[in-house]
Write a structure and sequence with these properties.
about 120 residues; alpha+beta; two-stranded antiparallel sheet; 5 helices; globular
Length: about 120
Amino acid sequence: MKQLPFALLLLVAQNAIADITTAELLKSCGEKTTVVGRVDGKLKKVGETLNGYCRGYIDGHLAAQKGRVCLEPGQDAHFVVSLLGQYVEEMPDSTEHEAGTSLSMALLRAYKCKPR
């Protein structure tokens, strides 16, 4: 009976580390976070940014690809989301693949580091 909680923990932990699909990542990236700032002394919407989950996923993936993917200066997480969207347009089946796999494929086909 003591093994049941351990087995449940393993099952839950396995699901917690499972990757999301490309469609789920793109949906999350489409949910923008409103940026508010002071304009003429009043709080007003001044723009939008990627939500925290999307930005964290992209930034973490880029960090893991360091040395394999060489983006050009100025190409940030917004650009990478755009790049992934373009990849999905060309490869519609990729929406059901793991987001990490699709993101790697999209990045590597356009920005693979050149050998030194």
